[in-house]
Design brief:
The chain is of the alpha/beta class and 389 residues long. The protein is 51% helix and 8% strand.
Length: 389
């Protein structure tokens, strides 16, 4: 009996060893694929944007000395080029606003930038205004940026939607409105996009822009710099071919799912490999012994990777029955499984669509250069992303 126990233990270890080799190979392949995905996302967007990024700015700021002198700080194409236009980057705590709080129905849309929190210098306000005007002049979207000291306890999404519904940013036929709302003292933000922009600015993409471009600068007190980086990325997406965006977003989704899964192989992947090797072992060692070795090897590998005991037992029983039935010629069949990943929402608020102050089309009915700024009747469905810093 002792000899039998020893032999079974050896076979279980053999099964675990057989499973570990292909899993290591699969993990290495996944790492290589991950590196390729990271590079592909940037490459595709960069190719689509090549040669286009500087024309709009050069035309828009021609003859404007203040903007032209600060143009190198705008960083049109990437986060590295974005201007550092505000407080020193090493600020320990983000700056607070000393302005009075304002209700959402009291905000007045009279410019692309409504700095109710008074956190921008005149120069920063001018640069941000110019960036939003350029997006509008290119026919990409009607965007507005709003800062407030606080929402006075109201959920920032609700506060933002109230502003968007009143202002109705965007054209009434295309719903291409965009609103960025920042509650400075609450350290909260949200980006809302109009109906017409939800395809090129999906929630996941806005979430990445907030997490990777905007809030890192906010944590250092650089509000203008973070917003310029985020606006640059939004403009890049609006100018990029939708098919390229679809492919890059899919790669980003795969990357996020791979990262959330961690560095260890998935339990389902181990199960599939155990099933394949189990079929081989049953043909070599026999139906009972081969099934025992494969199942035991799967259990050892699954538990050592930190998988749950209940799920491991359930899958082990299924694997055992599958191999036993196959080994006896019963024509059993395996199954397929799958899963889905989630995404976290967060970041700055951008309110697209809808018109601020009623219809009339464009900003103030005569574009940004007419002295007024108003919505064009665009609509919002709640698409966007929000977060904090």
């Amino acid at each position: 009996m002792q000899n039998l126990t020893k032999r079974l233990s050896v076979f279980m270890l053999l099964g675990a060893s057989l499973l570990s080799a292909p899993m290591s190979f699969a993990e290495t392949g996944a790492s290589s694929t991950q590196g390729y995905n990271d590079q592909s996302i940037e490459d595709m967007v960069a190719i689509a944007k090549a040669g286009q990024e500087n024309e709009a700015i050069n035309d828009a700021v021609l003859g404007n000395e203040a903007i032209r002198d600060n143009l190198p700080n705008i960083g049109e194409a990437s986060a590295e080029d974005a201007p550092q236009t505000s407080a020193p980057a090493n600020t320990a705590e983000p700056r607070q606003s000393t302005s009075e709080a304002v209700e959402s129905d009291k905000l007045i849309l009279n410019s692309p930038v409504v700095d109710q929190a008074n956190i921008f210098s005149p120069q920063q306000n001018q640069i941000l205004t110019q960036r939003l005007r350029q997006i509008y002049d290119q026919g990409l979207a009607q965007a507005a940026l709003v800062t407030v000291p606080t929402t006075n306890g109201m959920d920032i999404f609700q506060y933002s939607m109230q502003v968007a519904d009143r202002w109705q940013l965007g054209d009434k036929d295309t719903d291409d409105g965009l609103l960025i709302l920042v509650a400075v003292n609450d350290r909260d933000m949200y980006i809302l996009s109009g109906y017409g922009l939800e395809g090129v600015l999906p929630d996941a993409a806005l979430n990445r822009i907030i997490d990777e471009q905007i809030t890192p600068s906010f944590k250092q007190g650089d509000y203008a710099g973070g917003l310029i980086k985020g606006i640059n990325q939004i403009e890049n997406r609006l100018q990029t071919d939708p098919e390229i965006l679809r492919q890059s977003d899919e790669l980003a989704k795969q990357r996020s799912q791979a990262q959330s899964a961690g560095d260890t192989p998935s339990q389902f992947g181990m199960f599939l490999i155990a099933m394949i090797f189990g079929l081989f072992l049953t043909s070599v060692l026999g139906r009972i012994l081969g099934s025992f070795v494969a199942t035991g090897g799967f259990v050892m590998m699954s538990l050592s990777s930190g998988a749950g005991i209940i799920a491991t037992i359930f899958m082990a029983v299924f694997l055992w029955l599958f191999l036993i039935s196959r080994g006896s010629g019963g024509g059993g069949k395996g199954g397929r499984g799958g899963g889905k990943g989630g995404r976290r929402r967060g970041g700055v608020i951008v309110f697209p669509g809808g018109g601020f102050g009623g219809g009339g089309g464009g900003f103030g009915g005569g574009g940004f250069g007419g002295g007024g700024f108003g919505g064009g009747g665009g609509g919002f469905g709640g698409g966007g992303a929000g977060g904090s810093w």
